[in-house]
UniProtKB/TrEMBL annotation:
Source organism per UniProt: Haliscomenobacter hydrossis (strain ATCC 27775 / DSM 1100 / LMG 10767 / O)
Superkingdom assignment: Bacteria
Protein name listed in UniProt: YceI family protein
SUPFAM superfamilies xref list: YceI-like
Lineage of the organism: Bacteria, Pseudomonadati, Bacteroidota, Saprospiria, Saprospirales
InterPro entries: Lipid/polyisoprenoid-bd_YceI, TTHA0802/YceI-like_sf
Entry-linked SMART domains: YceI (SM00867)
Domain (Lipid/polyisoprenoid-binding YceI-like) ranges: 25-191
């Protein structure tokens, strides 16, 4: 009887702890992602409407412990501008969406996860593939534990189209040109 009571007490104490330490897959709960840049006419921004994320993250009672893996896939033709269909067409041509319909990011290594108040400063390294060209990139990301065990990751990353062998889109026989530098903005929420 004493052993049975001990077993019940141990189970009652350990089970919640095991449920809290959660290495495993998280699903995409929500996202906001966009790409912005400049042109000779105006600044521009295009929203991303189709994203999928696969991740394996470890969280325990002390908070975010590890990002074991993460991959992000963007449907390139889901990138749409507020400036209309002509801008979308030019964007998709630059991205070579007929040949390369997906933009992908694959995490290769986490350099550091540093608690900063209620957030985490994360330094990540990964491979970004755009228009068929894969390049290593580093990113500084803000992580935050949300209610319900969800996690948010926010950040911005400046890129040069020419690094990915893309030609900056032009219009009106070259009189309107976009700048070579773009910024990717992301805010994703993952959870179980």
């Amino acid at each position: 009887m004493k052993n049975k009571a001990s077993l019940i007490l141990t189970t009652a104490l350990v089970l919640p702890l095991l449920m809290w330490i959660t290495p495993g897959s998280q699903t995409l709960k929500s996202f906001k992602m966009s790409v912005s840049g400049t042109s000779t006419l105006h600044n521009w921004e295009s929203g991303v409407n189709k994203v999928s994320v696969k991740s394996d993250i470890t969280i325990n009672e002390a908070g975010l412990q590890a990002i074991n893996s993460m991959s992000v896939e963007v449907d390139a033709t889901s990138i749409k501008s507020t400036k209309g269909a002509m801008m979308d067409k030019k964007t998709w041509e630059a991205l070579k969406t007929t040949q390369f319909p997906k933009i992908t990011y694959q995490l290769t290594r986490i350099e550091s996860i540093t608690p900063n108040g209620a957030e985490y400063d994360i330094k990540a390294l990964g491979n970004l593939t755009i228009a068929g060209v894969k390049l290593p990139i580093d990113m500084n990301v803000k992580g935050k534990l949300l209610n319900g065990g969800n996690l948010s990751f926010k950040g911005d990353k400046k890129l040069k189209m020419s690094d990915f062998k893309m030609e900056a889109p032009t219009a009106l026989m070259g009189t309107i040109k976009t700048g070579n530098e773009i910024t990717v903005h992301f805010d994703i929420v993952l959870g179980e």
